[in-house]
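S.,

Sequence below, as promised.
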Amino acid sequence: MKKRNIYRFLVIAGIVVVGLVLISGSFYTYWSVASPKKTCLSCHEINPSFNTWASSAHRDVSCFKCHGTALSNGFHSLKEKSKMVFTHLKTDVSSENIQMTESQLLETMDRCKNCHQSEYTNWKASGHSAGYADIFLHDTHNKTEQLNDDCLRCHGMFYTGTTTDLVDPISKQGPWKLKEPGKAAQPVIPCMACHQVHAPGEPVRKPDYATPNNIFYARNLINNSVGFYSRHEKTHFQLEQLPRPDMVLFGDTVQTPADPVYRLCVQCHAPSVWHEVGTSDDHTPVGVHSGISCKACHETHSNNQRNSCDKCHSDVSKNCKLDVRTMNTTYSNPSSPNDIHFVSCKNCHSGQKFKSN
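The prediction came back faster than expected:
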């Protein structure tokens, strides 16, 4: 009799387990393929993100393609999603905008390469792919300039702690070490530092082949996905929201590039508080290259400028009868006294050299 009861119990338990698996499996499948209006949007905090996504170039891409599902990365994903639910129930976030943690953002960025393989590969080959160890454990830099919290404005803008939480010691005497060794290889300038994934934009459309002359006029002049992420405001500022800086050189106002991308670059490649060209990490072009945009010479994601001269110059200069690529500038020789950003005619024709402050 006891064996029969045990057998019945096992059968009933098995039926319950199978039923739960079928129900949860069906629900999981539905959640993965259904419209976000019927799934993600059921949480009112998702409304702001959904509204921007609905008007973005990614609006035909399902949420889980970038954010993953509860089981897309095994137990780790299930743990992360459970943590989100716990945080939601524990904290009153009714008036707050949901923010991804840095680790969640990096996981999302890793999925960007599924569609943007070329851009991701170019980014990996650029200086913008530097990790925390490359920046915060740089011996020469740390001995020259003491680390401070403003470092995170451009290097680690999604890190929620302070520089003191990240590096020890905060001084010009090392050796320095990361308090969180696991962050050593994590990128300090991920994709989302310059790209707002949910930014308003249009998906790629086929041009009007019947009237090819109109293709030029139909193209979008502004890349809405590009913008600067402010760690203090915890939001992206699109290019048209960024100010065009007033720059000076020896007291005279300098013509800055009209291209909005320059406004983005100068947020990190910035001058001193006096806005003097060439100070700090500023590379605002003056001299013969005055007014030229950063992306006129630098490739968008790789920052490569190897073929930049060819874009504007013929093989031989009409004035000097020389190949501009072989002139004594930092383009051909990094130790040249003539910085390509600041070079002028006087550098060669009168022996004078431009020196930034």
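The chain has a mean pLDDT of 83.

Coffee later?
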